[in-house]
Amino acid sequence: MDDAADTQQDGNALREALLAALSLQLGWGVDEALEAMALDRTVPRPEAATPGVAAGSTAWSAPGRVAGAVRDAGNSAGAREEAIGGLFPGDAAPSSPAPRRPAPRPAEVLAPAALRAADLAAGADSLEALKAAMERFDASLRDTATNIVFSDGVAESGLMLIGEAPGADEDRLGKPFVGVSGRLLDRMVASIGLDRTRNFYLTNILCWRPPGNRTPTDAEVSLFLPFARRHIALARPRHVVLLGGTAAKALLGAREGITRLRGRWHRLEIEGLGTVPALATLHPAYLLRQPSAKREAWQDLLTLRRALDGEVPKGF
Most buried of the four, 42, 193, 241, 248, by CB within 10 Å? Predict the structure, then answer.
């Protein structure tokens, strides 16, 4: 019984020590991993010719050593840090690093899913068929979302606005841009005589909400891009507005940020449709965080209004 109690106590102390180490790293500003796989320090290391270490022993002992050192250090954070640091002596490193299994490359992981997305998108011959294909597409985001968010507005209007991904309100109602940023967007476009119930069409690159309203990853955007491009081809807009950097960079294949892309017309090449004028502008969610940028957004709206009134976009 005493041995079991000691083992549990050591395990608790080890957990506390590791949590303290993570807290310390967060305090230092560490916010990303540099290796694909974590180094398991509970596994004995290879023998090394280290001064003071007898042959046949290892420079790294069982986890109990960590627990014991932390327990002995007391409650002082500085003492704990010193105790943990002392268990990782620089001169005790093995002569050659332990072999690690190479992490799979993103292309290897996403290739089958990406091919299936492209096939499903290409096979859709109507907006209804495209929505059904997107609902069938097996994506991890689908498992954490409530509703598919496909589109809103008038598909035949000739004007298509494209954002990045649904938020919580959109996920709940199944329509794009119905939250706070959506209401701001409605007021913005109303200032130049536009209304989603009459003369424009709305969608996003992603049709499923990322958990926690986080920004979509590059892999997720790439995975859903075939659906977005097919959506444009089927809606056949005469003008496209790209809301925010994620949508603009993905559809234009650009590396510049939205502040460099906004305010001018770009040539958007869509299979089955040809070249469509695309205006990049700031996302309404960004304007809620940076109200001072509304001046630039207003200039973009005027640029859009002139095009809708018959002005040929520069370069077309």
Answer: 248
**What is the C-alpha to C-alpha distance for residues 83 and 80, in angstroms, rounded to an integer?**
5
- Burial of 113: CB neighbours in 10 Å, binned 0-12, 13-18, 19+: middle
Report pLDDT for 315: 81
* Helices and strands (DSSP H and E) totals, the chain: 13, 6
77 neighbors 20 (Cβ within 8 angstroms)? yes
Mutual orientation of helices 2-28 and 77-86 as an angle, nearest 10°? Answer: 100
What was the pLDDT predicted at 107?
A: 43
Q: Is 97 exposed, middle or buried (0-12, 13-18, 19+ CB in 10 A)?
A: exposed
- Single-letter code of the amino acid located at 138: D
Q: In terms of pTM, does the model score above 0.70?
A: no
Q: What is the pLDDT, as a whole number, of residue 314?
A: 83
How would you classify residue 29: left for phi > 0, otherwise alpha for psi between -120 and 50, otherwise beta?
left
Q: What is the DSSP letter of 125?
A: -
Q: At CA 65, angle to CA 61 and CA 67, rounded to 5?
A: 145
CATH of domain 109-309: 3.40.470.10
> How many CB atoms are closer than 10 A to CB 20?
15
Could you give the 3-state DSSP secondary structure of residue 257? coil
At 84, is the secondary structure helix, strand, or coil? helix
Give me the residues of the chain with pLDDT under 70, please.
Answer: 1-111
Q: Round to whole Å and give the CA distance between 278 and 280.
A: 6
pLDDT of residue 195: 97
DSSP string, 94-127: -SSPPP-PPPPPHHHHHHHHHHHHHHHHHH--SH
CA nearest 195: which of 186, 185, 184, 183?
A: 186
For position 249, what pLDDT does the model report? 97
